[in-house]
């Protein structure tokens, strides 16, 4: 893993994500190295020769730049983070996410955090002083599947424990089931397990399907080739089937035990 320290010119950027005004990404790249990562397109903005998932740039001046930007930026909803995980392992050393969150204290910005890391519980003291919510991504409750598709992220057990801890601390929480991996975590049984794992500790769930754009799909196929190559033609068929998302919405709606928002 190639770790670099860089200086950024801007850290609070306008977002095109529905319902989100701004995004803050304290790092470029991510140690979690998820097989299905949609943010692989960020590689073209990096000088690194290493593949996506094998380098991280820490924006070491991010808190200072954010403080300056907040002086003249209209309040809105901020997503932390949109193309990295703000609580990836490197955050334990750099604390860039924590220091950025501190800049939002005594402001009227609403902060929405999404992570696969239990490290988020470290910042409960700061989170209690913010208008915020914290979400945990869960694509499966099967630790073996998780280890294949999300090799360096926190275990499912640790994520759920962190979710419970934050909820018990009266910090609003949600879950993100995405991407649901076709033929693996999109079955009725898998969906029931996902909802059962979170329904008593989240206000709502966001659900998303697999991103089949060339970059993430090519990346995912490499993992499937070594894990279960027979899944590749099955996913290829799903990729071309317009009825898949309709059927998936129906399955999710039938088992949902909390309010659901769909991204597809």
Could you explain how this protein is built, in words?
The chain is of the alpha/beta class. The protein has a single domain (2-262), classed as TIM Barrel (Alpha-Beta Barrel), CATH 3.20.20.70. 35% of the residues lie in helices and 19% in strands. It contains 10 helices and 11 strands. The chain has helices at 62-70, 91-94, 96-103, 124-127, 143-149, 156-168, 188-198, 214-227, 231-239, 243-255, and strands spanning 2-6, 12-14, 22-24, 27-28, 55-59, 77-80, 110-115, 131-137, 173-180, 205-209, 260-262. Strands 2-3-6-7-8-9-10-11 form an 8-stranded mixed β-sheet. A 3-stranded mixed β-sheet has the order 1-5-4, with no helix packed on it. Helix 4 (124-127) links the parallel strand 7 and strand 8. The chain is globular, with a radius of gyration of 18 Å. The two termini are 33 Å apart. The model has no long low-confidence stretch (mean pLDDT 97).
- Mean pLDDT over the full residue set: 97
Topology, number of strands: 11
**Morphology call:** globular
Proportion of residues in β-strands: 15-25%
**Discrete helix count:** 10
Over all CA atoms, what is the radius of gyration?
18 Å
Question: Strand order within the widest sheet?
Answer: 2-3-6-7-8-9-10-11
Give the N-terminus to C-terminus distance in angstroms.
33 Å
What structural category arises from helix and sheet content?
alpha/beta
Low-confidence stretches are none
Main pleated-sheet profile: 8 strands, mixed
- Along the chain, the helix and strand elements come as EEEEEHEHHEHEHHEHEHHHE
Number of domains: 1
Give the fraction of residues assigned to helices. 25-40%
CATH superfamily: Aldolase class I
Second CATH tier, the architecture: Alpha-Beta Barrel
CATH topology: TIM Barrel
């Amino acid at each position: 893993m190639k770790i670099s320290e860089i200086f950024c010119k801007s850290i609070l950027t306008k977002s095109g994500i529905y319902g989100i005004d701004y995004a803050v990404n304290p790092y470029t790249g991510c140690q979690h190295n998820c097989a299905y990562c949609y943010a692989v397109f960020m590689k073209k903005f990096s000088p690194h020769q290493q593949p996506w998932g094998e380098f991280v740039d820490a924006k070491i001046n991010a808190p200072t730049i954010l403080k300056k930007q907040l002086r003249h930026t209209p309040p809105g909803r901020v997503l932390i983070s949109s193309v990295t995980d703000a609580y990836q392992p490197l955050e334990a050393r750099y604390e860039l996410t924590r220091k950025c969150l501190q800049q939002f204290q005594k402001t009227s910005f609403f902060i929405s955090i999404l992570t696969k890391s239990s490290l988020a519980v470290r910042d409960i003291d700061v989170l209690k002083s913010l208008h915020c919510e914290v979400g945990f991504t869960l694509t499966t409750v099967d630790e073996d599947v998780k280890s294949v598709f999300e090799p360096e992220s926190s275990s499912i057990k640790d994520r759920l424990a962190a979710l419970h801890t934050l909820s018990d601390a009266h910090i609003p929480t949600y879950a993100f089931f995405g991407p649901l991996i076709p033929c693996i975590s999109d079955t009725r049984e898998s969906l029931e397990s996902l909802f059962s794992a979170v329904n008593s500790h989240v206000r709502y769930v966001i659900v998303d399907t697999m991103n089949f754009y060339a970059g993430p799909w090519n990346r995912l196929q490499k993992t499937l080739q070594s894990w279960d190559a027979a899944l590749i033609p099955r996913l290829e068929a799903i990729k071309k089937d317009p009825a898949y998302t309709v059927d998936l919405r129906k399955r999710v709606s039938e088992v949902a035990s909390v309010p659901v928002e769909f991204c597809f």
